[in-house]
Each structure stands twice: as structure tokens, then as C-alpha cells.
Amino acid sequence: MINAVNYAQAIEPSIGVDMTAVPESTQTEEVSKEYAFSHQTVINLAQTLSTSLMKPAEKAPQSLIDMDYPTYRKINFQQNQAVWGNTPTKFSVQLFAPGFLFKDLVSIDVVENGHAFPLNVSPDSFSTPNTEIGQLISLVGKYAGLRLHYPINRDDYNDEFVVFQGASYFRAVSKGQSYGLSARGLAMNVAQPKGEEFPMFKQFWIERPSSSQDAIVVHALLDSKSITGAYRFGIYPGKPTRIDVKATLFPREDIEHIGIAPLTSMFMHNSALDASDVLDYRPAVHDSDGLQILTGKNEMLWRPLNNPKTLEVSAFSDASPKGFGLIQRQRSFEDYQDLEASYHTRPSAWIKPINDWGAGHVELVEIPSNAETNDNIVAYWQPKEGLKKGQSYSYQYLMTWSNDTPVSLDLPRVVRSAKGVKLFTTRPEVVIDYNKMPDVNVDDLTIDASISNGKILEAIAVKNPHNNGVRVYVSFDPQDASLAELRVQLKQGDSAVAPTWLYRWIKE
């Protein structure tokens, strides 16, 4: 059985635990001298690692691992220890101590003037419940991750806006947003019988930006049983925050199921397509409500998300895709009515390939979940032929952490999807609302609606003055099918005038 991944509390900034002896393998060695560094350094390391078996990451001492979450939260990085915190650069770096869920130790080096040197851990690096814990963390000498700070909301305060912590997970926010969905370096064997493999960023290098720079560069070395990789993240904070990613991959073996540029999110319910199984005063609970894809042929697709009863995997075949992302479209508090979670401020994430990704498909995995602390939605690009041992692969893409899809901003969008039954019948019906169509004549529109099982009964379009758009009603007969794929395209003549709406109808 595949369980939803619990990552919601995985990047809280804290730590703590009872003191025990530090395993010899985790004790800090003498500080290495600085060394010449460029991104090629990381590529060479990844390529060399790929020729031998993976060595497991060093683990934190058991006493740190055994900490409970409340204790872990009491360990905080000292503000006065922030890297570049007292320098003219606009960026500062804070670090996470190992412990609790974060067992794997990470090395972090700083790059200045083309030379790198390791960041040291001292007993003063973290505020801790007692001196023994501080000494233990200092003896370990490594970290569990890092976070970047920059004044994205106001000039006099450095906001945390990017976090790298746990396996190859990272996430970001733009101005006015709060953390929501996450990204990963790679996804391996998601929803496969042999179980998922979680690659890890084992080492980071952070380039020091000049005082005039509004961007920062982070390099990362990825390691896993099946693959190694060298990553370069060019990070641009603001409105919106953007991350320019370059990944060079070296498979240790032939890989059939691999996810490039994976996004991980949460969808519990909304009141229109997927009602809650339990009473909930909130009309919607989700970090993302739809998957959007811009295909290589310039067709825009919109697929509402589900919280299914059983595992659901969907594949959207394409060649040379132009973009995909998990989108949080509803941006009003009234859509969620949640004072604590603030789902209306959570970001969307859009992936724009920079080089040609060839043939493959965008894969969407929807995992049954009964808790909003579980990440149960995964989306990524799956290359058609997988990856082959002994070859290298390069994927470049731009991630944009915006409020909505940052492409075709002036064109119509699907702003709401709903399902029910057609009035005075027992036939299922779906309703699709498109905005930004104030002057369209609905008599000029045609609806190209199809269903994989059963038949379409009726498809009509009417003006929707409440959003300056159009509402489409589609009723259908699934006949004896338990599952059917719906596809609805709104056209004017031979041209699509709005995103193609896709939906997996499942018999309840």
C-alpha cells in the first residue's frame, strides 16, 4: 500500500534531545583548507560517484534522532551566526541542525571568489535546551539543511524564502505568500510496486553574492542508489520568486521510472468536485487544486485534482513540453475559510523547460489521504525511454513560484469546475467556468466534448456575467463504466479559445 508522504512539518526551524556519545564516524575532522570551485567541480564529483555503489549518508547520533518534535523545535539557529548576516549582501543563510526526522547529515560549503571552504559548527551555532545538546551538535559537525533569507516583503526585514531540507526536497515563496507545495531534485519509482527511492542532496555549496546582487546561486550534489546528479540553482527572490535549475544526471543503472522536476502537494477536498468525507466547516482544503500543462503543440490543458479512494496515476503524453505545474487558483480567504493555514496565500509552481526534453509524458499521481498534513499529489516529467546507465543527461528548467500560471496571463482560464446531476435526471453532469471572455458571442462557440467510456448526452455554453466569462455544462452517460476520462475543448471555428479541460470521473 502506498501512503501519502508526510512533509508538512518537515521544515519547521528547530531541534533538541538527550545527550549520548557521538558515533566516531560522525565526529568532525579538522577543517579542510579552501579549494578552487566551479559548477564543474560538482559535475565531476557526481560522475565519479556514479561509477561505484552508493555509500549511505552519515547519520545523526541516535540521541538526536530519538528527539520528539516539541524538543526538536527548541533548537534554533542563532541569528547572530547567520552566514553573511553582518555584511552588505542582501542575502543571509541559516542552517538546520540534525535530529528528529532529519537523520541524514549534510555538508555545506561556502564559495567566495572562486574558492570553497566548509562551514563549521560551534557550540554557539544553535540555541538549545541545554549545553550538552549544543556540544553534541558541534561534535557532529554537519547539518540537516539550509534556508535562505532576503527582504522580499519589506526592506527592513530578511524573510525566509527558500528551504532545502530532507532528501532532495526544497520549497520557496514569493512576496505575500506562505509555504505550501514542495519541489524535489528527482522522483524515483513513484507508485511502483518495488517502492519509491528517495535521492538525497548530500552536499551544498553556496556562492556569496555581492552587495549589489539580487540573486544567489546554490549548488548541490545528489546521490541515490540508482543515480547521481549535479545541480545548480540560480535563485531570484521577489514577486514572483524564480529558480533557474540545471541538473546533470549520471545513472548507476538503467532507470525506467524517473520523475524530472517533480512537484509534491496536498489536495484534500473542495466543495465543487470532491466533497469531504467528514464534516468540515471549510469549503476547500488544498495546497494546489489543478495540474496545468502547456504542451509542445501549444495546447493548454487543465486537470482538476482529486483525493481518490484508491491510488490513481494519469499520464499526459507529449513531446518537447513547454511547461507544467501544480496551481493554486483560488486566491480568496472565502474560498477556504481557514484562519491558520491561509491556503489562499500558498504558491503555485510552474516548470518551464529550457532545453529540449524530448518525448515522454507528464505523470500525475493522486494518493488517497485522510489528513491535510500528508502530501498526496505528485507531478513530474517522465522521459519516454527512461535513463540509461553509462550516459549523462542534462535538464534545464525555470521554476516560478507565482500565484497562478505565469504564462498566457491575458487569456481565458478555467476558474472553477463542479460536478453533480443534470436537473430532473439522474445523469451526471460537470460544469466548467472560464473567465476573461467578456465580449464573446456564445453562439459562435462550439464545444468539443468526448468521454472514454459511455457517451456525451449534451454540451451547452452560456454567458457568465459574474466572472466576465462563459459557463459550459456537459452531461453524460457512463453506462456501466466505473471510470471515464472526460475531455472538453471550447472552440471558435477551428481554434481553441480556452484551456482544454480534462477530468477523471470515478463512480462513487
In CATH, what is the class of the largest domain? Answer: Mainly Beta
Oligomer: single chain
Rough outline = globular
Helix content: under 10%
- Helical segment tally? 4
The CATH topology name of the largest domain reads Beta-galactosidase, Chain A, domain 5
Structure report:
The protein is mainly beta and 508 residues long. It has 2 domains: 5-401, Distorted Sandwich (Beta-galactosidase, Chain A, domain 5); 414-506, Immunoglobulin-like (Sandwich), CATH 2.60.40. 6% of the residues lie in helices and 41% in strands. The protein has 4 helices and 36 strands. It has helices at 39-49, 62-65, 69-72, 131-140; strands at 5-6, 35-36, 76-77, 92-96, 107-112, 115-118, 126-127, 145-150, 159-165, 169-172, 182-184, 186-188, 200-207, 216-223, 227-236, 241-251, 258-265, 267-269, 285-286, 290-294, 300-304, 312-319, 323-327, 349-353, 359-366, 374-375, 377-383, 393-401, 414-421, 428-434, 445-451, 455-464, 469-477, 483-492, 495-496, 500-506. The strands form 6 sheets. The protein has a 16-stranded mixed sheet that branches. Strands 4, 8, 9, 10, 11, 12, 17, 22, 25 and 27 form a 10-stranded antiparallel sheet that branches.
